[in-house]
Specification:
By secondary structure, the chain is mostly beta strands. The chain is built from no helices and four strands.
Length: 71
């Protein structure tokens, strides 16, 4: 396993939506364990976010769950 930066919070450990709450992808750590070698998610290209085509709002990528990494 490899320790990599969480894409959803950018490694801060703080949720992007609620600045006072811990990130619900990495649980406040800022980093997550992924299989070695780390591979960026092909659906979101490692951002952890997918923009809705209608509302243009960013939501969590369903491919990686917001982590930005393939599992």
């Amino acid at each position: 396993m490899a320790m990599v930066q969480c894409a959803w919070c950018g490694g801060t450990g703080i949720d992007d939506v609620k600045l006072s709450s811990p990130c619900n992808v990495c649980y406040g750590d800022g980093y997550i364990n992924v299989p070695d070698p780390p591979t960026k998610c092909g659906r979101c290209n490692g951002t952890g976010k997918i923009k809705d085509g209608f509302t243009r709002e960013a939501g969590k990528c369903s491919g990686c769950g917001g982590s930005g990494w393939a599992s």
